[in-house]
Amino acid sequence: MGIFLCFLFFLISLASACDRCAHQAKAAYFSKASALSSGACGYGSLALGFNGGHVVGAVPSLYKNGAGCGACFQIRCMNTTLCTKQGTQIIVTDLNNNNQIDFVLSRRAFRAMAYKGMDEDVLKLGIVDVEYKRIPCEYKNQNLAVRVEEISQKPNYLAVKFLYQGGQTEIVAVDVAQVGSPNWTFMTRNYGAVWDTQRVPAGALQFRIVVTAGYDGKWIWAKNVLPSDWKVGVVYDTGVQISDIAKEGCSQCDDGSWK
Ligand SMILES: *[C@@H]1O[C@H](CO)[C@@H](O)[C@H](O)[C@H]1NC(C)=O
Ligand SMILES: *[C@@H]1O[C@H](CO)[C@@H](O)[C@H](O)[C@H]1NC(C)=O
């Protein structure tokens, strides 16, 4: 144990704080994109609209019990005959429990790593060595949004799903209160990108969320999100967007763009 701790300390002191670190991994693909639309994050068919359908199931260490839902990555395959240096961008919508493979991509995303005309050859490989790094998610003219889930039951139960989370962060806590009230109620992650509470404040609702950012965390305050007559199945604009970047540690940063 002592040796392990020393080793860990040694590793951390060697690492520098980076916006992006490159990691090596293995990737495969789902034969059907619809396999991912019922993914563990709970995005449903909305997921197919993310990143042009470049969705991915990630290993538990990247899925992070749902905190990794909506995280964006640049990923490239290491076979330089078949695959471009820049690779493609993917977004986490599902959990992948196969510990031999780090990412299971939608077919469309898997092909997108290849040069034009080489995509069938890449598909034939089935499993490829890849390099990946976390990148900020960018939603043009689109704020962070919350969707009121069908399992919600007014006035006793509220479940919301976060959509279009920009930046390179993870949501680690969510509170809800009536608009203008300082009486905050905490919400709990139910699963994936869905947070819920059984103590639902009355009236129109505001949210504050904690995201990982920089070296620690940051509050994001959405002052007026749900109207008092909020309805299930509706997506509400939070009026805010996240652009922060949570740092990670690696021996060498990979902050440039892959070309
Ligand atoms: C890349 O893929 C091609 C086609 O499958 C294969 O012939 C070649 O050996 C691979 N190259 C590397 C470096 O794996
Ligand atoms: C605060 O909000 C909770 C949940 O809506 C409610 O049960 C409680 O009575 C409120 N407390 C005050 C002091 O208003």
UniProtKB/TrEMBL annotation:
Pfam families tied to this protein: DPBB_1 (PF03330), Expansin_C (PF01357)
Domain Expansin-like CBD: 156-238
SUPFAM superfamilies registered for this protein in UniProt: Barwin-like endoglucanases (SSF50685), PHL pollen allergen (SSF49590)
Compartment(s): Secreted
Name of this chain's protein: Expansin-like
GO biological process entries: anatomical structure morphogenesis
UniProt keyword Secreted present: yes
InterPro entries assigned: Expan_Lol_pI (IPR007118), Expansin/allergen_DPBB_dom (IPR007112), Expansin_CBD (IPR007117), Expansin_CBD_sf (IPR036749), LolPI (IPR005795), RlpA-like_DPBB (IPR009009), RlpA-like_sf (IPR036908)
CDD domains: DPBB_EXLA_N
Expansin-like EG45 domain boundaries: 38-142
An annotated GO cellular component: plant-type cell wall
Family from the record: Belongs to the expansin family.
Keywords: Secreted, Signal
PROSITE patterns on file: EXPANSIN_CBD, EXPANSIN_EG45
Signal peptide from the UniProt entry: 1-17
